[in-house]
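Chapter review: from sequence to fold.
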Amino acid sequence: MASNLSMHLKHCCSPPSLRSYFAEFISTFLFVFTAVGSAISARMLTPDVTSNATSLVATAVAQSFGLFAAVFVAADVSGGHVNPAVTFAFAIGGHIGVPTAIFYWTCQLLGSTLACLVLHFLSASQAVPTTRIAVEMTGFGASIVEGVMTFLLVYTVHVAGDPRAQGRKGLATTVLGALVVGLVTGACVLAASSLTGASMNPARSFGPAVVSGDFKNQAVYWAGPMIGAAVAALVHQNLVFPSAPEPLPHESRHGSVLTVVV
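The token string follows.
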């Protein structure tokens, strides 16, 4: 057991693994910078964003494009998770080892926090908007909404990237997978942003909370997405494509869209 642990830790500190952590840091920075930055811009241009649908469309489009780009640039290095919930789903499915998942989570959260810090200082100390639940909703209801949206997102990630479904690999598949994931994210933002902020990503909510110092309802944006992601991974692996996963030594399938996403 000790030798296995030592082997896992050695693999986690190898040059390819370090490159994958850096890729997750950069891609998460990119996504959160576009997502939170678009919210700041919308608020500056339209102070009363609650009654203007234009700002909702703008932030949805920004998040779609931002996620598409973030997934694409990191796909061949780290799998382009960009989201602790996605990493959690792949860990449950056996596509990525637990030690590596922990490093991924750390880099994702650091990337998100740095993106929000940069936005805070570059926008002349504008307040960083946090994801919030509607006053009419309970924390439990908001968690369900976040869980359902994350289920849809992570399930789409699995289906779009599974070579057994596509029967093909390569750049075109990576681009298509990243694009579909971005589109699903944008659709969910349009559908439920006014209810919960449509985070679907613990890192997306964690960074703004750290920089703003407002951790209200943070549990909603961790419990809901993690549970939704886990259910999506189990449904895909056991119901849609129930065959056993490829035997992997201890790591994810880098360079394949199977490990793509948000």
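Two observations follow directly from the output. The radius of gyration is 18 Å. Residues 76 and 255 are 4 Å apart (CA to CA).
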